[in-house]
Amino acid sequence: MSRFLKEALRAVEPYTPGEQPRGVQDLLKLNTNENPFPPSPMVQKALHSGEIARLNLYSDPNCADFLRVLADTLGVGCGQVLAGNGSDEVLQFAFSAFAEKGAAYPDITYGFYDVLSRFFGLPSQIVPLREDLTVAVEDYEGFPGMVVLANPNAPTGLYLPLRQIEKLLCQDPNRLCLIDEAYIDFGGESAVSLLPRYENLLVVRTFSKSRSLAGARLGFAAGSEDVIRDLNTVRCSINPYNVNSLTLLAGISALRDADYFAKCCAEITAVRDWTARQLRGFGFTVTQSSTNFVFAGKNPRISGAEYYAALRKNNILVRHFAAPRTADWVRVSVGTRAQMERLVEATRGLL
Ligand SMILES: *Cc1c(COP(=O)(O)O)cnc(C)c1O
Q1: CB 109, CB 12: distance < 8 Å
Q2: Which residues pair with 106 in a beta bridge?
Q3: Is-above-0.90 flag for pTM?
Q4: Closest atom, ligand 1, to C-alpha of 209
Q5: Are 319 and 101 in contact (CB under 8 A)?
Q6: Phi, psi of 99 (to 5 degrees)
Q7: Neighbouring-strand partners of residue 240
Q8: Across-strand partners of 88?
Q9: 209 C-alpha to center of ligand 1: Å?
Q10: Is residue 3 helix, strand or coil?
C-alpha cells in the first residue's frame, strides 16, 4: 500500500476471481463457470479484419445497434436496456446509483456484492440463506436499501420462482430490487417479463456464461426507462465508451444466432444433470441446479476441501469457498460431456 491511498480504501478487500492459470498442460478448468463451447461461428465471422482496421475510431457510446437487437430479443423498449463491460460493471453502476441506504444480499451468493458494498462503504445487510440454502423473501421485508439476489443463485445453483420475486417486489414499491440473472438461460423464467408491472425491478444479465463471451466482457441491465436513465448518468460520468466496438459486434451476432445458443444451452443442461447423477452416486449431496455448474458436498467419505485438493492433484480445477457454511462443498462448472467424464473418472479413482 502506498502512502497516497485514501483512508477509506485502506481496509478494502478486493474480489478474488477463480484462478486463471496460464500454460498448464492438460488442465481441466471447471472453476469459473465459463462455457466450454466457443462463441457462435457468426461471432467469429463478424470480427473480421475490416472491423479491426476501424479500431482507430471510438466505439458507439450509446451502443445503439447492440441495444436495439438486445431490446428486440428481450421484448422491451430500447430505452429499457443498458450495456456494460461485463455485468460486473453494471453491478458497479447500480451499487453506486441505488444503494445509498445499503444493499441486502444472502450470506451465500456471488462474492462481488459484498466487495462492492464494502468498496462504496455502504450500510449493508447480509441475510443468511435458510438451512436448505434457499432464499426466503420474507427475510428482506422492511430493509430500506437495495435488495440484490442472484437468480438462480451462485454457488448454490438454486432457482427462486418468479412469484417469490413478485412477493419481494410488492413488499415496498419504493425499494429497488436487483435480480442478477447470470445463469437464467440454463433454467428458470426471467424476471424481464415482470418489468411492465414493476418499476422497482432491475434485471442484470451477462454474455459470459450462456453466450460463450466471457473474454469479450459484455453484460447488460434491463429496467424501467427512468432506472436505466439513472444508470446511464453513472455510466457516462465514469466511462462513456464502456463497451468496445468488437464486443458490441460480437454481442449482436451472438444474439442473432438463436439456434446455436439454444443448442449449447441444451447440451450444457443435459451434461449438468448427468454429472449431478454421477456425483450423487458417489455419495455427494448435489443441489437442484438451474445453472451451468453443480454444487456438490456433504459426502461422508470426503470433505469439500479434500475433494478440491484431490481433484487439483489430478489437474482438475474446481472452486472451493472456505467460508463455514460452504466449506464442505465444491462448485464444479459444467464442461463438455468428455470433460465431465474425466471429472467422474477422477472422482471414482480418488474415492
Ligand atoms: C459470472 C457472474 C457475473 C459476472 O459476469 P461478467 O458479465 O463476466 O462480469 C455476475 N453475477 C453472477 C452471479 C455471476 O455468476
Answers
A1: no
A2: 127
A3: yes
A4: 1
A5: no
A6: -115, 35
A7: none
A8: none
A9: 8
A10: coil
